[in-house]
């Protein structure tokens, strides 16, 4: 593979035992890994080269990871994939990372397969050449494109994160029915991750904001007090009598 064609992945860590083996694995899978020793290194890598993903090695002391995520999400390279690697003791910042815009959280120690699966999630997004077909299909009403991670309504679409799409897919599959927080957790996250019901609430809030960005979309996510959430699809259009 031409080195210029490799997708760049920045690994922010001070742990050589993490960087060296995963750097080798990423290279064999067609990625180009780069080491970042500070938040400024990460941002400079984004600005200079453009990157596919950022891996954040999070310890209980790495509060800077949250600030970095926020800065990336408000920058010109906001679409880059953010993956947090959580060590033991880093769980307290898990929720803060999700609020800051992290796409995926993986518990350490982690298998190379899980990391590669997360990195390749964006590979399945809908190609730009098929966007017009997607929009034409969406004009018939509210739809989701799970592979492209898009919610579509009235010819408009919004791109969602991997976790957001998993939650929305679960809700849409059971439209009009109650989905408890525990059901959403089980269908979205690995059992090894310490996900709480509050984490679900954070993602529901993000999904609601995303749906509001779709002009004229009447679909919504309704809260059922102390029980969970219900997806309310837009009403069917009435045909003239």
TrEMBL record:
The modification 4-aspartylphosphate is found at residue 57. The keyword Transcription applies. GO terms for molecular function: phosphorelay response regulator activity; transcription cis-regulatory region binding. InterPro entries: CheY-like_superfamily (IPR011006), OmpR/PhoB-type_DNA-bd (IPR001867), Sig_transdc_resp-reg_C-effctor (IPR016032), Sig_transdc_resp-reg_receiver (IPR001789), WalR-like (IPR039420), WH-like_DNA-bd_sf (IPR036388). Residues 131-233 bind DNA. GO terms for biological process: regulation of DNA-templated transcription. Residues 8-123 form the Response regulatory domain. Residues 131-233 form the OmpR/PhoB-type domain. SMART domains: Trans_reg_C. The keyword DNA-binding applies. Keywords: DNA-binding, Phosphoprotein, Transcription, Transcription regulation, Two-component regulatory system. It holds the Pfam family Trans_reg_C. One of its GO terms (cellular component) is cytosol. It comes from the Bacteria. This is Two-component system phosphate regulon response regulator PhoB.
């Amino acid at each position: 593979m031409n080195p210029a064609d490799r997708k760049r992945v920045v690994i922010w860590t001070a742990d050589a035992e993490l960087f060296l083996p995963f750097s080798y694995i990423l290279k064999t899978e067609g990625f180009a890994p780069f080491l970042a020793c500070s938040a400024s290194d990460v941002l400079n890598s984004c600005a200079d080269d453009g990157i596919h993903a950022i891996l954040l090695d999070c310890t209980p002391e790495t509060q800077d990871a949250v600030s970095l995520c926020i800065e990336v999400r408000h920058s010109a390279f906001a679409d880059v994939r953010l993956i947090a690697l959580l060590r033991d003791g880093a769980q307290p910042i898990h929720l803060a990372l999700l609020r800051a815009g992290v796409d995926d959280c993986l518990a350490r120690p982690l298998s190379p397969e899980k990391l590669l699966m997360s990195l390749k999630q964006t590979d399945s997004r809908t190609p730009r050449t098929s966007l017009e077909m997607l929009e034409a299909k969406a004009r018939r009403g509210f739809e989701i494109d799970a592979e492209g991670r898009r919610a579509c309504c009235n010819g408009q679409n919004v791109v969602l994160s991997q976790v957001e799409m998993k939650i929305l897919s679960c809700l849409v599959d059971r439209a009009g029915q109650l989905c408890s927080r525990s059901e959403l957790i089980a269908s979205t996250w690995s059992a090894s991750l310490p996900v709480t019901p509050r984490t679900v609430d954070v993602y529901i809030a993000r999904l609601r904001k995303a749906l509001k960005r779709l002009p004229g979309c009447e679909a919504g996510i309704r809260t059922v007090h102390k029980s969970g959430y219900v997806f309310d699809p837009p009403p069917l259009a009435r045909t003239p009598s």
